[in-house]
Amino acid sequence: FPLLVDPTPASVVRRLDDAFSTLVSDDYFFEKSADCTSSAKGSSAKVPLFGSSALVSFRRATPDSFLLTVSGCTAEQFGWICVKFYEERRKFKGLNHSGLRRATAEHFNSLPPHPGYDAHAPWSVTDADPSMTSSETDLASEASAALVRSLFPDSVLEELSEEGFVVIDDAFSTSPAAANSLTEHLTEAAKRTNQSVSIRTDRVAFLSRSDARSCGLQSEYDMLMAVAPFLNDNVLWTVEKSSHAPVSPGTAARPLTNPRNIQVAEYGEGDFYATHSDNGLDEGGGRRNYRYLTYIYYLNDGWSASDGGALRIRRRSGDFETMEAAAACCDFEDVLPVGGRLLVFDSRLAHEVRPNVNGRGKIRRALTLWATRPEESGARGEVWDEGTEGEDKDEID
Ligand SMILES: O=C(O)CCC(=O)C(=O)O
Ligand SMILES: [Fe+2]
What we know:
Oligomer: single chain
Number of domains: 2
CATH topology of the largest domain: Jelly Rolls
Structural class: alpha+beta
Strand order of the largest sheet: 6-14-11-16-9-8-7
Number of helices: 10
CATH architecture of the largest domain: Sandwich
Distance between the termini: 22 Å
Bound molecules: 2-oxoglutaric acid, fe (ii) ion
Helix content: 25-40%
């Protein structure tokens, strides 16, 4: 689909070419290789996730238009590549993205969400951070598997299954300097989400393992990634009658899959997130996505009740259609976001982040990962509202 640009000063063309090169060299989704050309006319890259033939190229078609071409992949993979570019669209300021936007919306309206990545046992750092040596990644993989084993004795697994959530204190000790370094990352990468400020006011970014490493948070990243492999091996998974056929790479025996990136969120003074479910019911009675368990690791040294910012979780609130009904019916527990605390809960449960009211400008920070369970979620595609107001306001310079 064509991406139009008008007018086309040489500097804009260069900037767009550079944006494409930077995107494909920085993102695990793409891979530059010998047969991927980069010339005055444009450049291309492979998409190893979708096999050896998937290719994306970004070329100047006419003096005032660019063409993004995707080849060698299935229709579903094409949809995922469109989503990827759409997520990165702000790097291509000045282009008309309506074709890309339409393809992304079509994808979301007709296909299920991304199933996630295989949750190896033990969690293998090598795949996530190929720039490290194999002895470094072996050590990190073993350390995170051992840590998670120690954090999830049977009593914790039982509590999680009975209550739908469990709080694990002193899971890890993170230096305040590492936590503070996230702010710099958030300034660069971060965004307010597309959700309205009446629902949430935090800022989020997604960190790859090398991003996490650059903030000194690689062990925290590994710990979060190692939970799904541990649970896959240590929980007796029951396949319910309603289950869908397994969606690769999830299987009936090893149902949890991992995303590649962890979310970091910052709540400044007054910031909050209203009652929501990370995987609520949609209009058709299915689930909105594949999320099955939410884990949140808090980075806030010396946080106390008077600072606010508790995560208020509603017991047994997974099957309510509206959050108002869940909040009215279900009693809650307030979990303070104290440093080193790991909270694990059923992603269906209603919860909210109470306002940060510490009064001293202290930022509340958390790392979040959602373990996904494709075959059991019942999700069939997210509802994508093409008319989302204000979505693209900042696209044109
Ligand atoms: O930071 C927290 O405690 C929870 C954040 C949350 O609910 C979310 O990001 O979905
Ligand atoms: Fe949430």
